[in-house]
Structures are given as structure tokens and as C-alpha cells.
Fold this sequence. Notes:
CATH architecture of the largest domain: 2-Layer Sandwich
Shape: elongated
Number of strands: 9
Strand content: 25-35%
CATH topology of the largest domain: Alpha-Beta Plaits
Number of helices: 6
Distance between the termini: 34 Å
Amino acid sequence: MRVEKIASNKVRIFISYEDLASRGIDREDMWQNGKKVQELFWDMMEVAYSEVGFEIVGPIAVETFTMPSEGVVVIVTQVPSLPVHGSEQDVVETDEAGPDPFGAFVFAFIDFDDVVHVAESLMRFGPMHCSLYHYKGVYHLYFDDASIDENVYEAVWAVLQEFGELVQVTRAVLDEYGKLIVDQQAIDVLNRWFAR
């Protein structure tokens, strides 16, 4: 078992087929929620905590996929609590300037390739208002969550969390100090120009 911390809220764990066999788990068992698999998961979390300091606090997302000869890869992401979609809640205080209403959120991406991957993945969820900024050397996608269909809201967040990180920065700050690259139609424009 090998653990890599790939972000402050995300670890990747490699488990060889030999490791699985020694626990009496075969490849097909990994897709079941049996007792042995649950025990393996908690063992992985212990190793992740002891080796890289990754601790589960609150909700997590778990992705698992197999590599034909090497074994199984498990990615565990600490998930921030989802805002209530379309709700009229109090504003969120940010570190940087004024507050933003809960009707919007921003994800940051270090790599432009990650922004392109996100845009490709989000196309299947239908149109949504999303603006692309460059600010402090990082790409930011600003979403108006009222434009996201309620039925796909959690799936959209899952895609965003796979590639980026939720940040508390307001549109006012992005407009004032960042560079607007694409307004409102960022997903469409990115797919038109950069999709593979």
C-alpha cells in the first residue's frame, strides 16, 4: 500500500493485487461494500493519517479504479459541505473584501489543463453561467449556482472537486484584481476552443 497526498484535501492510495489477495479480497470484491473492503478502507485511512497527516473530518468522496497489472487506485477527497442549492441564506464572509451571496461559488485551478478537463466534464450537465478569471497566478471558475439544474448540482460539485479547490473569493475581488478571460459562457467557450 502506497499513499500520496495530492492536495491539502485529497490523497491517492495505491493497493497492489498482492495486498488485496493477502486480505482475502479479489478484484470483484472492491466494488462491493463488504466487511473486508470496509476494514481495508479504514486501514487505508489509518495509513494515510500516519504517513501524510490526512484525517477524515466530515464528508468525503471516494473514487476507485483498477489498473490492469498494478492494482487498485483509491482517491479520497475531503468534501466541503454543499451550500443549499438556490437558498436565500446569509452572506458568506471572505478573507478578501466584501461578502458574496450564497448563490455563487468559486473553484480555483493551478493548471489550465484542469480547467479544460472540467469544462469537458461539465458539458454533459447542460448550460450554466460560469466565468473564467486569472487571479494571483491561478485560474478561477465563478459559478452562478442558480443556473445549475438542481438534479445535477451534486454531480457538478463532484467534478469540480476532482480537479480544483473551493475558494472563498468574491466576484468583486476577481473583477477588481483578477483578469476576466471569459464572462458567463466559460464552459462553452473552453469546449469550443480546447476540447480534444
